[in-house]
Amino acid sequence: MRTKRFLTIIILCLCVCLGWVSSVSAHGQGEKLEVYRVPVGDYYVSVWSLPGVLRTGEVHFETAVFDQNYRPVVDCDIKIEMTSVDDPSKSVILQTRKPTPETYYRHEIEDNVWIADQYNITVLITDPEGFEGQTAFQVEVIELPFWIKVPIYSGLAVAAFSALLLLQKGLIIFGIWKPKTIQSKQPTRPKRPIS
User: Fold this and answer.
1) For residues 29 and 109, what is the distance between their CA atoms, to the nearest angstrom?
2) pLDDT tens digits for 99-112?
3) 71: part of which helix (H) or strand (E)?
């Protein structure tokens, strides 16, 4: 009985790990350095995009601003404008969050992009003294083919199902939850009348 429980837990853990790897693949690994220490007024600006190959769904941009001594500047305001190359009327401006030491002093923003296209990205910088500057670059957002999406989403489904089973088994093993057992009643034979 203990061996069966142990094997069940090991198999479920492997399924969860495989699902986690699939979900990481779904989001994408790595980041791409789009611009590096480009001079914008008195500042130097670097911009990263995540995942390394942008695809429809969530895209993430990180911007770092440095002064002339390459110290991070945290009190400036940064907006990122995404404009379709094919249709400039399709444009969105995103406001970045203020940087913290946990984000390595990077201004971060993420948003969903559902149309595969070439985009012009303009980084707009404003500091408290009223300076306004910008830098720009182009990115391509691609659509993942169906044959890649199927394994990713089925891996996520397996991971979710395995996590629920693992949670249930853990609750049962540690005695926190006891499932109700259905007791089957034996059919009783009718008594024969005594004659």
Assistant:
1) 17
2) 877 777 888 988 88
3) none
